Input
Amino acid sequence: MDFPRMSETARIERLQPRPGMIRMVLDTDTYNEIDDQFAVVHALLSPERLRVEALYAAPFYNNRSSGPADGMEKSYEEIIRLLDRLQVSPDGFVFRGSDRYLPSYEQPVRSPAALDLIERAMSSGNEPLYVVAIGAITNVASAILIEPRIIERIVVVWLGGHALYWPHTKEFNLGQDILASRLIFDCGVPLVHIPCNGVTTHLTTTVPEIERYVQGQGDIGRYLAETFKSYHEDHFAWSKEIWDIVTIAYLLDDSWVPTDLVHSPILTDQVTWSEDHSRHLIRSAYLLKRDPIFRDLFTKLEAWAKGTLAIVR
Output
């Protein structure tokens, strides 16, 4: 497959942190676990920086679904539940994604989400569209295969795989669709890679903290707290990663999620990383600052509950 060839200078420029307002879409397997819900809310409660244009339901398959199509549909329904609690209309805002993983590079999945992504990217002019992905990358990979020119118009921020020094990269988001994951690292799209093990594993919270700063913050706070506490029966000395808000945190303040420019790794058939210093550059996170990230989320939830923060559509 031939993709547009951005110069390394243009790609590096596109990967520089961007001041001012950011146009973004959020691609999420929202029902897969309990962290996507926090990320959706955090993004929508950040209108000072993020202009969220669309939410896309991503496929997933685990014990919470009967297959990728069911996972996508359940994610779509979970997005609707969140928006209802935030008093946001889903009309023209929420789109169903792929009902299967990428069959081949010759067979992209033409879902409403992929087609909407293409339309928004191609109408973006000189302002890049940030594609924040916190699940299997099928929708985004399909959009690139359908219309490769969007590579020059988007920046992908993806939570997927482990740190580049990790002995393997067998992680849920990446492993759900290996073919789509490999494409994201190979095609040359400007990419901010946020690893799970080694980086986002530091983004933990506890039941007492959630009860203190989330549970009392209106209908959405109650829902998030109930979802968090239901994840584990024994809360004694237990903490839980809220993985997905790291992508929102990076866009809000890149100092909270420091990154380096590195050569895009090769995703091997053994689901490990291989190095090739002749490949194009991406950004990869090597650290996160847990406290300011949660402080920002908790502060915005409180402001929302008090009616001093409004969601902008």
